Automatic annotation (TrEMBL):
Gene: gluQ
Function (record text): Catalyzes the tRNA-independent activation of glutamate in presence of ATP and the subsequent transfer of glutamate onto a tRNA(Asp). Glutamate is transferred on the 2-amino-5-(4,5-dihydroxy-2-cyclopenten-1-yl) moiety of the queuosine in the wobble position of the QUC anticodon.
Motif ('HIGH' region): 15-25
Identification of the protein by name: Glutamyl-Q tRNA(Asp) synthetase
Enzyme class: ligase
Length: 297
């Protein structure tokens, strides 16, 4: 159950199959898993495979096998976003019919140099077919209190502008897809990396338009390499192997401020996770946006 609530806890991990899991993605998965299991909640697994050009062959299966080797079992079937495209498209076009969104024909070249979308197509009344779809944003501040990062607010009109919910290439944009999926799956708590903190106000606006209650948010520090680059597939971060799961789990626990004893990494995966669940303390997570990756012993 969620703290201070009678609602059951439903969390989720939603990796993109653009490569193997690395320490950064494991840390996010482990934080989400522990936050759910510590209160007897459910933990769902969703594959965010709505961008085929970025997918790596075999990545989906590799992610599942790695999570299994690390003992991070999930509840229910694995959901793939690629099976939900019709629902995303229907909602995007419904927003147009409601006057809440519009077709945009701007190219990347036209928008280069703009930090905020300048509203070029806002009143152009372009045909929606073959165009991107942008959501009109209000001149309003959206604020929330993150469980780790604290108070965060953003004035969408000034800091983001009208944002894309359906891409010109006929694929759903992340902001719309993630909100619709979390609503469909009944997600009550979202635990993810701090690189997505800036996305949250846009998602809060979508929840408002859809008349749904948003989840609680917990954004963990983003792990970065010694040169300051984030751990990620694009920077060839070291992929996790299934050979030493204990060492990987203990490194992730250290990144989350949980202070596991040195000897723990020599225990079995189930023993490590049992210790981690019983010692899970959100208040120990470093309250920073970025954090140097912990080194292995």
């Amino acid at each position: 159950m969620r703290e201070g609530s009678k609602s059951p806890y439903i969390g989720r991990f939603a990796p993109t199959p653009s490569g193997a899991l690395h320490l950064g993605s494991l840390t996010a998965a482990l934080a989400s898993w522990l936050d759910a299991r510590a209160v007897g909640g459910r933990w769902l697994l969703r594959i965010e495979d709505i961008d085929p050009p970025r997918e790596m062959p075999g990545a989906k299966d590799g992610i599942l096998r790695t999570l299994e080797a690390l003992g991070l079992t999930w509840d229910g079937p694995v959901v793939k976003q690629s099976t939900q495209l019709a629902a995303y498209r229907e909602q995007a076009f419904q927003f147009i019919q409601q006057g809440l969104a519009y077709a945009c024909c701007c190219s990347r070249k036209q928008l280069s140099g703009f930090l905020v979308y300048p509203g070029t197509c806002r009143n152009a009344r372009h045909a929606a077919q073959g165009a991107a779809i942008r959501l009109r944003v209000p001149d309003k501040t959206f604020a929330f209190v993150d469980r780790v990062q604290g108070a965060f607010s953003q004035r969408l009109a000034d800091e983001v502008g009208d944002f894309v919910i359906w891409r010109k290439d006929g694929l759903a944009a992340y902001q719309l897809a993630v909100v619709l999926d979390d609503i469909t799956q009944g997600v009550t708590d979202t635990v993810r990396g701090a690189d997505l903190l800036d996305s949250t106000p846009r998602q809060l606006y979508l929840y408002q338009l859809l008349g749904k209650k948003p989840p609680r948010y917990l954004h963990i520090p983003l792990l970065v390499q010694q040169d300051g680059r984030k751990l990620g597939k694009s920077f060839r971060s070291e992929a996790l192997t299934r050979a030493e799961p204990g060492q990987a789990l203990v490194r992730a626990l250290r990144a989350l401020g949980q202070c596991p004893p040195r000897a723990l990494q020599r225990q079995s995966v189930s023993q490590i996770l049992q210790w981690a669940v019983s010692h899970w303390r959100v208040e120990n997570i470093p309250r920073v946006r970025t954090l140097l990756e912990p080194v292995a012993d």
